[in-house]
Amino acid sequence: MENVQQFIDRIKADSYMQHYLSAECDFDLEDDKQLEDDLYYLLEGGKCQFKLTPLGCDGSGGVYVLADDGRVGYIDSEGSAGFAAMSVRDFFAVLLCCGYLSDWADASQDGCFDSLQGFMEQLEDKISPSEDYKKRIAEFCCDCGLETDPEKIYEMFKKGVFSQPPLEIKAIDDDYEDYDPLFKIG
Fold this sequence. Notes:
Helix content is 47%, strand content 16%. The chain is of the alpha+beta class. The chain is globular.
C-alpha cells in the first residue's frame, strides 16, 4: 500500500485508528476543501519550492503535506516547517511509533536525532498506548506494510528530517516572515 488515498481510506474505515491518530499523534482527517483552505492560509504571504498537497491537519491549525517529490512534511501554525519522512508509508510508520511531531521538533533541540540512544530515550518518555490500541496499531501496520522496529523507525525518521532540499517557506510579502526549520539539526 503506497497510494495516499489507500492510507486515508484505511484510516477512515477504522474508528480506533482515527481516534488514536487524533488523540496520540495530533493527526486529523478533514475534507479536502478544508485541508486546502488550511494550507492556503498557512502559505499566505509565502512561497514554497514544492507543490504541496495537504494530507491531514492537527488540532491547532497545522497541516501535514505531501510534496511533489513524495516526501511528507508538516507546517505548523507557529511559523515552522519541515520534512519528517521520505514517503507516505514512512510517514505513517513514524507517526504511529513516535506520536506528536511537534514533540519531536522540541526534542530535536536536545539532539534526539544525534544518536539511536537519544532517540530511544525520547521514545521511552512517550506514553504507551493501551493493550487494545497496541493490538489495533500492530494490525494496521501489518495490513499496510508499515515498519514497526524502533531502530528502523529512527533511521527512517532521521532520513526524512535530514533530507535535502529542506521544506522551506520564504516570505514574499513584507507583512510575513520566513518559516523556521521545524527540526533543529546539528
